[in-house]
Amino acid sequence: MARVSRKKQNLPTPAVDTPIRRWKTALYVRLSVEDNGKGSDSIENQTTLLEDYVTSRSYLEKTALFVDNGYTGTDFLRPEFNRMMEAVKMGIVDCIVVKDLSRLGRNYIETSQFIEKVCPFFDLRFISVNDSFDTATVTSEGHLSASLSNIVNDFYAKDISRKVTTALQAKMERGDYIGNYAPYGYRKDPENKNHLLIDPETAPIVVQIFQWRAEGVSYMGINKKLNDAGILSPSQLKRERGVETNFNKKDRVILWNKHMITEILQNIVYIGHLAQKKGSQCLYGGIPYHITSEDEWIIAKNTHEPLLSEELFEKVQEINRAAVERTRANSGKYDHLPKAKNIYGKKFVCAECGAIMKLQRSISTKKDKVYFTFKCPTYAEHGTRGCSDVKIRKQDLDDAVFSFIKSQMEVFLDMEKTLHSLLAMKKVMIKQDNTVQEIRTLRQKLAQKQSLLSGMYVDLKEGLLSDAEYSHHKEIVMEDIRAIERNLSELEAPKNQTEEQITGEMKWKQMIRRFHDATEISEEMADAFIETMKIHEDGTLEIKLSYMDEFAALTKTCEKIRKEVA
User: Fold this and answer.
1) Which residues fall within 8 angstroms of residue 382, CB to CB, at 6 or more apart?
2) Are 42 and 31 in contact (CB under 8 A)?
3) Rounded-to-integer distance, Cα 72 and Cα 286, Å
4) Residue 399 clears pLDDT 90, i.e. is over it
5) How confident is the model over 320-360, as pLDDT tens digits?
6) What is the pLDDT of residue 285?
7) What is the DSSP annotation of 535-561?
């Protein structure tokens, strides 16, 4: 009879409110080298189309705009695309909108894998406006349409890649200059961009560089002379002339360096010849840019006016070859002397310029002793125009780092004792608190409600309750259960918090136990403890340990518990 009475209870039906999902939407725009940048594919037109599309749909909320300008669609090695995917991984973006599938990519396999594998994995919605493709609503027919579009784009990319490669090959063979920028000492002919003219401003500098080298001045010596004279480096000159490249975007002075000098001293462009195809890539095949061997170069002679005589050029090449031979002859000469490894890697930088400190080996005049010193590479290459003379002996650095880490270990161990003492006091207080009885009562009520829920299910199976009645009463009981669980959670929070504090403590405690008996700094120890290190001109050393945020939180917790038990 009790089951029948439960069936006839007249209880209200709770209301269900399902909010409409707002998608955090990224607009992705791409213009590649194979596009002409005009018409509907321009950056501006793509952006306008996507913004209008998102604005007209209340369920889409524009979060960010990502633009890859000048990047091929044959692979996903694009800076803005990768930045967008980082936003997806962090939960900042959960929807991507593009003009059409070709903007996402022209490689059939990679594009299909992105749509069919990556999107579902990240719960990522993908919309291609002109293709009427939306992963949230797509049918099997839609997937087929997208696949066909990807195949078309794939063939298009392959055809473009082949045509571009053939055309460039023909230009290089007939002596056309195809570089984006003229070599230092030259400028592009305004009447013919594939022809080089002498730059009256920089040509004399090139000649001077060759003359210095012919006189026996070293690469670093030439480098220092140019920087001391205030002569703008090739990258700096481009920026001064309003030409932005991947190498001069940073807001800093770009000084001459050994690489620039070497490149000039070896280039046959200065005797009127062109050596091209020194680097190669395959747009369609996904082969990245790489340096080619000399037998792959395309040489065209007497294509423009030379800056140097062939005699001067060849003399410099002989000097360069002799220098290489001396280096080879000395190779292994001091292998019997000790070597050292930079155990800090990229973590140790110059505080003045930000360069990674370089470990250098110095050999005594007697050739029987070695000294190891960390030096700023910017100062070593550019002198005071580049940075200050920042340096420190390796042994002094190792001793300072090890001493600092050991002292922090001792602080942590003291904190551990304090923490456990405070936690023990807090546990006693919790046991004495009236909340213990409240928790026990709530757990009993929770068990009763769960038992009632089980009984209702039996009534359903036995036909005493209809499906509608069961659903109605189940929701009411579940609401009671959820309310009890919320109350329990609030009452048990102090106890759970205590357990979490102990668990958190173990993260750094284990590391300390691992290295507590160490007698010197090691690569493994440095990697575990050190986040960053900086050294200033005056020798001041800044060390940021990787777990300091965790330790700060632990300290705060101890202070909090101390107040609670006071």
Assistant:
1) 223, 224, 227, 255, 256, 257
2) yes
3) 10
4) yes
5) 999 888 877 766 666 667 688 899 999 999 999 899 999 98
6) 46
7) E-TT--EEEEETTHHHHHHHHHHHHHH
| pLDDT tens track for 27-86 | 999 887 555 555 557 888 889 999 999 999 989 999 999 998 877 766 677 889 999 999
| Residue 149 and residue 103 in contact, taking contact as beta carbons nearer than 8 Å | no
142 with 58, same domain: the answer is: yes
Q: How many folded domains does the chain comprise? A: 3
What is the CATH classification number for the domain harbouring 163? 3.40.50.1390
Q: Band of the pLDDT at 8, cuts 50, 70, 90?
A: very low
**Residue ranges making up the domain that contains 233:** 186-328
* Rounded CA separation 154/115 (Å): 15
DSSP-derived secondary structure letter, 118: I
Distance of alpha carbon 33 from alpha carbon 366, whole angstroms: 59
Choosing from 328, 345, 376, the residue where a domain stops is 328
Are β-strands 541-545 and 530-535 bridged in parallel, bridged antiparallel, or unpaired?
antiparallel
Dihedral pair phi/psi, residue 526, rounded to 5°: -60, -40
CA distances (Å), 107 to each of 57, 104, 155, 473, in order? 30, 9, 8, 55
Percent of the chain surpassing pLDDT 90 = 30
Residue 448 and residue 312 in one domain: no
> Which CATH number goes with the domain that contains 212?
3.90.1750.20
The beta-strand segments (E) located in 354-444 are 358-363, 370-375, 391-393
Tell whether 209 is covered by a domain. yes
Helix axes 394-432, 548-565, angle to 10 degrees: 30
Q: Which amino acid is at 107?
A: N
Query: Do 298 and 424 share a structural domain?
Result: no
